[in-house]
Amino acid sequence: MKLPRRRQFLYLAAGAAALPAVSRIAFAQAYPTRPVRIIAGYPPGGSIDIHARLIGQWLSQRLGQPFVVENRPGAGGNVGSEAAAHAAPDGYTLLMSGIGNTISATLYDKLNYDFIRDFAPVAGVMRAANVIDVHPSVPVDSVPELIAYAKANPGKVTMGSSGVGTSPHLSGELFKLMTGVDMLHVPYRGNAPALTDLLAGQLQVLFDSISSSIEHIRSGKVRALAVTTATRVPSLPDVPTVGEFVPGYEVSVWFSVSAPRNTPPEIIATLNREINAGLADPKLKARLVELGGAPMPMTPAELGKLIADDVAKWARVIQAANVKPE
Q: Which of 17, 62, 252, 273 has the greatest count of CB atoms below 10 A from its CB?
């Protein structure tokens, strides 16, 4: 039977309107049907790259398609982040994101993307601590003694970091703001040269990643005063937290997976479920611990809150300390 023209038009229009929703659901259910790229905004061999490859390998095994890491270094990770932000929101481009993105949101005045606006949180990966190291010649054995020593020598105690705007640097700036001490920041291009000068006694204090300095801490070549996380870390159980002496102080170095805004929620749910399964896997969990961190399973909403809180936190520190990018 032939439908009246108006009824036929409405019937076809309703069907057409339903097609995108149906096709999106079918697409998400089939995901992935081809290789997925994970953009890492840093060179191969760094922490972001290593964790991207670990998660990529796990997802490849679980979802049956290659998850390939693409290194796009430059501008403190912002080159890769911008590329991911402008990619198609189809689940086939992901970003290995982290604390650096929440710092960059304020540190750089002009970015061609907004980390909160242009990305959808997918899953947490790992959380780790920075550590306050001192050379054995520095006459302090605790955080309270370091505070007293720095106040007795304003502007004379050298405080190294792996570079301006890095999490170790801002860990130090937050420490200075919360304790009222004046230490001279000495930025380096990476952890290795900073640690070399600390070992040589040319630097007095270093805010460093645990993975970089843990062997020197264990050998006694440097003295660890405290870790920056809210709780003590298994790899250095006898080292207290900064917060045990400076209430409210906390810095966690963390990595996560993000996707371009408007990525289908069904795809985000699939990735979140599979990544969290990996974080519960004994072998992958052990590997993260070896790298100096702990698994950070989260829902997308929980990760979104962490990101928003960190952006606000680092904005306050950067503005108060007048930190400018190099």
A: 252
State the Rg of the chain over Cα.
23
Q: Please determine, for residue 145, whether its predicted confidence score (pLDDT) is greater than 70.
A: yes
Rounded to an integer, what distance in angstroms lies between the CA atom of residue 299 and that of residue 228? 24
38-63 pLDDT per residue, tens: 999 999 988 899 999 999 999 999 99
Spatial contact of 38 and 67, defined as CB atoms under 8 Å apart: yes
Length of the chain: 326
Mean pLDDT, all residues of the chain: 91
**Looking at 209, 226, 244, which one is the last position of a domain?**
244
Q: Domains in the chain: how many in total?
A: 2
CATH number of domain containing 140: 3.40.190.10
Give the Cβ contact number of residue 102 at 10 Å: 24
Residue closest to 84 by CA, chosen among 54, 40, 45:
40
Structure tokens given for 303: 């990760």
Residue 231's domain comprises 130-244
Distances (CA, A) of 202 to 138, 139, 151, 159, 210: 11, 15, 20, 11, 20
205-243 residues labelled b (16+ CB within 10 A) or e (exposed): bbbbbbbbbbebbeeeebbbbbbbbeebbebbeebebbb
pLDDT band at 292 (very low <50, low <70, confident <90, very high): confident
Between 326 and 179, the more confident residue is: 179
- The pTM assigned to this predicted structure is 0.87
Strand order in the sheet with 130-134: 184-187, 158-161, 205-209, 130-134, 223-227
Asked if residue 266 and residue 121 are part of one domain, the reply reads yes
In angstroms, rounded to a whole number, what is the distance separating the alpha carbons of residues 256 and 321?
27
Quote the strand ranges of the chain, DSSP E. 36-40, 67-71, 93-98, 119-128, 130-134, 158-161, 184-187, 205-209, 223-227, 253-260, 293-295
Tokens (6 digits) for 27: 């697409």
